[in-house]
C-alpha cells in the first residue's frame, strides 16, 4: 500500500500541497476531488516520486520512497497522466512501453510482454487498435491505449489523472466499471475526477482537497452528508432516487 504522512511538496521552493495524510488501500477505488489548481496532480506526482517532497514520508509497503529506484516505483505504481505526447508508433508498440520496468537495456521483449500487451488492450476494449498508428486514433481511442499501457505495467497501484477526458458518456461509464473491476482484482485505484456525481458513485474512499490541503476523506455518503462539496465547489449537491438506486447530481448556486 502507498501511504503519505504529513507530506508537503511543490515547485521551485513553494509548497503546493501541505501536510497531506492519506493512504491508497488495495482493493479500493480512491477518488480525489477538488477545484482546478488545488493540487491534485501535484499530490499524484509527489506520491509517484516525480517531484520531490519537501517534508513528510511517502511509504510503499512500508519502504520510504527515497530508497526506491524509479524502476522499483514503476513496478509498483502506474500513472496515467493528463498530458501525453503522441509518438509516431503503433498502439501495440505504445502499450509495450508499459513493460519497460521489467526489461533490461537493450530491450528484448519476451512472450510474456506481448501477452501482457494483448491482455491490457483487451481489458480496455481496444485490442482492434493494436496495429493502428497513434497519430491516426481519436482522442478517446488514444485514451484507451494509454490506459492499456498503464495496465501492462502490472502494478498494485494505478493513478489516473482525469482519465475520462476525451471519452463520451458511454466510455466514461465503461472506465468507471473498469476502475471498479481493477479494484475488485485487488489493485489500489486512484482517480482524479471532475464529475462529482461520477466520483461519488464510483469511490470507495472519497477525498476532498482544497487549496493544497486535504479537507475531508471518507465514504461518498459521509462526504455528501457533510456538505463539504457545496462549500468547496460553490454548488449544491443532491442525491436523487433512480430506478437502479440513487444518483448524485449538482446544481449551480445561482440559476444559469
Ligand atoms: P490540480 O491538479 O488540482 O488542478 P495542480 O496540482 O496541477 O492542480 O496545480 C496546483 C498548483 O501548482 C497550481 O497553482 C499550479 O499553477 C502549480 N503548478 C503546477 N505545476 C507546476 C510546475 N511544473 N511548476 C510550477 N508550478 C506548478
Account of the 3D structure:
The protein has 256 residues and is α/β, with parallel strands linked by helices. 33% of the residues lie in helices and 30% in strands. A 6-stranded mixed beta sheet has the order 6-7-8-3-9-10, with helices on both faces. Helix 4 packs across helix 5. The longest helix is centred in the C-terminal third of the chain and has 16 residues, at 169-184. It starts with a strand and ends with a strand. The structure holds adenosine-5'-diphosphate.
Task: Report the end-to-end length measured between terminal Cα atoms.
Answer: 43 Å
* SS content category: alpha/beta
Overall helicity: 25-40%
Low-confidence stretches: none
Strand order of the largest sheet: 6-7-8-3-9-10
Please outline the helices and strands:
Layout lengths: L1 E10 L2 E11 L4 E5 L6 H8 L5 E8 L2 E2 L5 H7 E4 L10 H6 L14 H13 L15 H14 L4 E5 L7 H16 L3 E5 L3 H7 L2 E6 L2 E6 L1 H7 L1 H6 L1 E8 L2 E8 L4
Parallel strand pairs: 3-8, 3-9, 6-7, 7-8
Antiparallel strand pairs: 1-2, 1-4, 4-5, 9-10, 11-12
Helix pairs in contact: 4-5
Which features does this protein show?
four-stranded antiparallel sheet; binds adenosine-5'-diphosphate; alpha/beta; 256 residues; 30% strand; globular
Short overview:
33% of the residues lie in helices and 30% in strands.
Amino acid at each position: 500500500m502507498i501511504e503519505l504522512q504529513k507530506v508537503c511538496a511543490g515547485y521551485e521552493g513553494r509548497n503546493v500541497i501541505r501536510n497531506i495524510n492519506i493512504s491508497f488501500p488495495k482493493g479500493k477505488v480512491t477518488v480525489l476531488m477538488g477545484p482546478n489548481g488545488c493540487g491534485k496532480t501535484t499530490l499524484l506526482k509527489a506520491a509517484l516520486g516525480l517531484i520531490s517532497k519537501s517534508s513528510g514520508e511517502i511509504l510503499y509497503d512500508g519502504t520510504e520512497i527515497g530508497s526506491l529506484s524509479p524502476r522499483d516505483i514503476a513496478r509498483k505504481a502506474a500513472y496515467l497522466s493528463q498530458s501525453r505526447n503522441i509518438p509516431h508508433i503503433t498502439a501495440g508498440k505504445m502499450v509495450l512501453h508499459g513493460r519497460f520496468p521489467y526489461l533490461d537495456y537493450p530491450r528484448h521483449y519476451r512472450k510474456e510482454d506481448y501477452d501482457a500487451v494483448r491482455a491490457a488492450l483487451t481489458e480496455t476494449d481496444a485490442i482492434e487498435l493494436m496495429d493502428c498508428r497513434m497519430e491516426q486514433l481519436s482522442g478517446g481511442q488514444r485514451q484507451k491505449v494509454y490506459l492499456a499501457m498503464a495496465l501492462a505495467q502490472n502494478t498494485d497501484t494505478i493513478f489516473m489523472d482525469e482519465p475520462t477526458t476525451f471519452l463520451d458518456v458511454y466510455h466514461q461509464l465503461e472506465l468507471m466499471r473498469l476502475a471498479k473491476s481493477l479494484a475488485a482484482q485487488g489493485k489500489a485505484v486512484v482517480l482524479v475526477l471532475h464529475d462529482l456525481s461520477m466520483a461519488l458513485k464510483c469511490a470507495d474512499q472519497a477525498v476532498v482537497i482544497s487549496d493544497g490541503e486535504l479537507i475531508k476523506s471518507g465514504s461518498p455518503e459521509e462526504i455528501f452528508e457533510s456538505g463539504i462539496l457545496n462549500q468547496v465547489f460553490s454548488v449544491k449537491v443532491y442525491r436523487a432516487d433512480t430506478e437502479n438506486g440513487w444518483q448524485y447530481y449538482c446544481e449551480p448556486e445561482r440559476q444559469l
